[in-house]
Write a structure and sequence with these properties.
The protein contains eight helices and 13 strands. By secondary structure, it is of the alpha/beta class. The chain has a single domain (2-132, 166-234), classed as Spore Coat Polysaccharide Biosynthesis Protein SpsA, Chain A (Alpha-Beta Complex).
């Protein structure tokens, strides 16, 4: 039960929150870091090992998590010397991974059942399984369609559109990654497109529970606003470990 947590991004969209802190350490509910919540969830689901792929402000993540013993998880680190996108960091330590494993962004807040995702991946025999969510997007304008003669044939006032989006949580098989070169940026989008071109389509694991990607200020503010309402769903019922304090002023 091995999880890879991608925690090396610069969090540019979340500035100024991420000026002094890496995105996985920004506080939620004035009591937890996102990474604290993720590690609690993983342990509650039976994961006993995690690899943190770090880069920007990685020393702060090391100081906060340490060896993972406070969460009951054995933690090791893979540090990228340059940005390697979503999948690129994994290629540098793919030989150390089990046959099947979980990959997730370090800024995801969800009550997704990670074990169910892995089980679905194994049963589907797909090279990659992507947890998906229906995200609603409100268009703040009236939308219209025209015919070839420049006449309006359809008009909808401020529609709400729904799209299936990646949640930033995946199940992967090690053999899926072995053909790709190391030390080069390689994103999930590139992996999916390459698998489709090779007629090896990924599987989708559809989810309709709670999910926020804390990558934008609006979503971060929403996560803090509603945290007390979803606390019981996000946090395991067992007593939480005493996470180490992090002095960012030092």
């Amino acid at each position: 039960m091995h999880a890879v947590i991608l925690a090396g991004g610069r969090g540019v969209r979340l500035r100024p929150y991420t000026t002094a802190l890496p995105k996985p350490l920004v506080p939620i509910g004035e009591e937890y870091a996102i990474l604290d919540i993720i590690l609690q969830q993983l342990r509650a689901h039976g994961f006993d090992r995690a690899t943190l792929a770090i880069g920007h402000l990685g020393a702060l993540i090391r100081a906060f998590v340490g060896d993972g013993s406070k969460w009951g998880i054995r933690v090791d680190y893979a540090e990228e010397k340059m940005p390697l996108s979503t999948i690129g960091p994994l290629l540098n330590f793919v030989d150390q991974l089990p046959d099947h494993f979980l990959v997730m962004n370090g800024d995801v807040l969800t009550d997704l059942d990670y074990v169910a995702l892995l089980d679905h991946h194994l049963s589907s025999k797909a090279p990659l399984t992507v947890a998906t969510y229906q995200r609603k997007v409100k268009i703040d304008f009236g939308t219209l369609a025209t015919d070839g003669g420049g006449r309006i044939v359809e008009f909808v006032e401020k529609p709400v559109l729904s799209y299936g989006v990646s949640m930033g949580v995946y199940a992967l098989s090690r053999k899926t990654l072995t053909p790709y070169p190391r030390n080069v940026p390689f994103g999930l989008d590139e992996l999916v497109l390459d698998l489709l071109a090779r007629d090896e389509p990924p599987a989708a694991f559809e989810f309709d529970g709670y999910w926020l990607d804390i990558g934008r200020p609006d979503d971060y503010d929403e996560a803090n606003r509603c945290f007390e309402e979803v606390r019981s769903a996000l946090l395991p019922s067992a007593p939480r470990p005493a996470a180490p304090a992090l002095d960012v002023t030092a």
